[in-house]
Amino acid sequence: MSCRLRPTLLGERKFRRNLLMPDEHRTIMPNKPLQQSPFAGAKGIMDEILASRARLNQASADFLKIDVQTALTFCQIARETHDLRKKLRNRHHARQGYDAILRLRQRVILTEEEALDLAENLEKLRGQLVKLGEAL
Question: Which of 6, 9, 10 is nearest to 23 (CA)?
Answer without folding.
Answer: 6
